[in-house]
């Protein structure tokens, strides 16, 4: 989201901030929720890029094995993060953010959400018209990115599985 009168100062804090209050203040001041940065990244793409990944499991290899209480606390924080990202994404869309917009690399918000493993954000974007078949400059669809992502898994809750269920039947490379 960049301010119409001084985009260089307003776009960076808005893209990094996940506070809906901050976004509302910028919108009231005339900021544009669809205005991209120099590389074409829109606020919605930035939200998806900075969003949340699929979360930790009890046997997450990046961390020591979590006991049930630690895992429950981690999942609760993750659920709160998911809720917050969805709230900010919904606000960006309500302020004119385009779910189909792509940056100069051809990545859309759906590409970034797929790479992060964010199922709820994937569902949100698809429900609002994000294209499941959109290819970036490398010829990758969101499904292809999900399939190569650390967040992808073979379970029915994996984001690659979700994208297959929602639409494209093959991975583009």
What can you tell me about this protein's structure?
- The structure is a single chain.
- Helix 3 packs parallel to helix 5 (109-116), helix 6 packs parallel to helix 8 (159-166) and helix 7 runs antiparallel to helix 8 (159-166).
- The longest helix has 27 residues, at 68-94.
- With 173 residues, the chain is mainly alpha-helical.
- It has a two-stranded antiparallel sheet with strand order 1-2.
- The protein has one domain (2-166): Serine Threonine Protein Phosphatase 5, Tetratricopeptide repeat, CATH 1.25.40.20.
- The radius of gyration is 16 Å and the shape is globular.
- The chain is built from eight helices and two strands.
What's the helix-strand series?
A: EHHEHHHHHH
Q: Count of helices?
A: 8
As a percent range, the share of helical residues equals: 40-55%
CATH A-level architecture: Alpha Horseshoe
β-strand percent reads under 5%
Alpha-carbon Rg, integer:
16 Å
- What is the CATH fold-level name? Serine Threonine Protein Phosphatase 5, Tetratricopeptide repeat
